[in-house]
Amino acid sequence: DAGVIQSPRHEVTEMGQEVTLRCKPISGHNSLFWYRQTMMRGLELLIYFNNNVPIDDSGMPEDRFSAKMPNASFSTLKIQPSEPRDSAVYFCASSFWLGGPSDTQYFGPGTRLTVL
Amino acid sequence: AQTVTQSQPEMSVQEAETVTLSCTYDTSENNYYLFWYKQPPSRQMILVIRQEAYKQQNATENRFSVNFQKAAKSFSLKISDSQLGDTAMYFCAFMIRQGNNLFFGTGTRLTVIP
């Protein structure tokens, strides 16, 4: 089975540009997570969806960040406008969760974003 | 609030030897899960092992095993017969049983020396 798929794997852009990161979760999973990894802050949860509905976006740093999940097999994380401090590795993860006992999250390969 | 602490930023081990990575956590929850994830240079986050807090038996996965001490809130990872492919960052993570948020430690960089 294919794991979590993320695109692009690398993105280099200039400050002020819009950046869109994409994620396809594992088929059958109904929860999707966006994480950011930086040297300073480690791994932090930005937002997660359950059944395509955003449940907790308290980790989204500011209004420049937005995430959508239009269907069960696709999600985007958008940064507009991008800033150099947004440079990080962004991970998408998915799991199967029915609101009861949690299930293991499986991670995609990540997108390395560099904002010049 | 849940916190996860990994006090060893870096460790090294000789190939074929055994190494133990430490992790402690703080929570007021009674039902939760603990995980170890591995992040090799490829950056992929790979699940190594998972432990349910309500299970007394320590989880094992081939060469990987944990020492789970619930009262001490300790969750260490033992890697036996270390291999060069074990070189990676290792992250300890926590999740409450009825929740969906993973809380990560800061990681331990393990180097296996030939």
Residue-averaged pLDDT of chain B: 93
Number of helices of chain B: 0
Largest sheet of chain B: 6 strands, mixed
Which regions of chain B contain 5 or more consecutive residues with pLDDT less than 50?
none
Shape of chain B: globular
* Most extensive chain-chain interface: A-B, 26 and 23 residues
How far from one another are the termini of chain A?
Answer: 36 Å
Please, how many helices of chain A? 0
Structural class of chain A: mainly beta
Structural class from helices and strands of chain B?
A: mainly beta
Give the quaternary arrangement of the chains: heterodimer
Shape of chain A: globular
Instruction: From the alpha carbons, calculate the radius of gyration of chain B and give it in angstroms.
Output: 14 Å
Portion in beta strands of chain B: over 45%
Number of strands of chain B: 12
Describe this structure in words.
The complex is a heterodimer of chains A (about 120) and B (about 110). Chain A has about 120 residues and is mainly beta. Chain A is built from no helices and eleven strands. In chain A, the strands form two sheets. In chain A, strands 2, 4, 5, 6, 9, 10 and 11 form a seven-stranded mixed sheet that branches. A four-stranded antiparallel sheet of chain A has the order 1-3-8-7, with no helix packed on it. In chain A, a hairpin with a 2-residue loop joins strand 5 and strand 6. Chain A is globular. By secondary structure, chain B is mostly beta strands. Chain B has no helices and twelve strands. In chain B, strands 2, 5, 6, 10, 11 and 12 form a six-stranded mixed sheet that branches. Chain B starts with a strand and ends with a strand. Classes of the chains: A mainly beta (about 120), B mainly beta (about 110). At the A-B interface, strand 5, strand 9 and strand 10 of A face strand 5, strand 6 and strand 10 of B.
